[in-house]
Design goal:
Oligomer: single chain
Strand content: 5-15%
Order of helices and strands: HHHEE
Largest sheet: 2 strands, antiparallel
Distance between the termini: 60 Å
Length: 97
Amino acid sequence: MSRSIYIIVLLLSAAFVSCKDNPVDNYGTTVVDKYKSTEQFADRVSLQNIQQSVTTFRLTNGRFPEDLEELSNFAGTPLDPEKYDYNPSTGKITAKN
């Protein structure tokens, strides 16, 4: 009995390994792709929120923030200068690649 179970498990394992569309691999790939997509969406939303803080700063102070540190102090949120480029003459924030 145990020999027949061993043979069945071996055959099923071989079938999954040789299958081009391995469901386990497909699931893993899908999960990783969705995770990356979610990260990219969160980065875009974060950038939009920071840009909104620049707009609010300008409406409040009549000028753009001089740098990310001034914007960070105004917004009460730490901003990593390694992640963003900021142009104080236009108020434009972009993500660094």
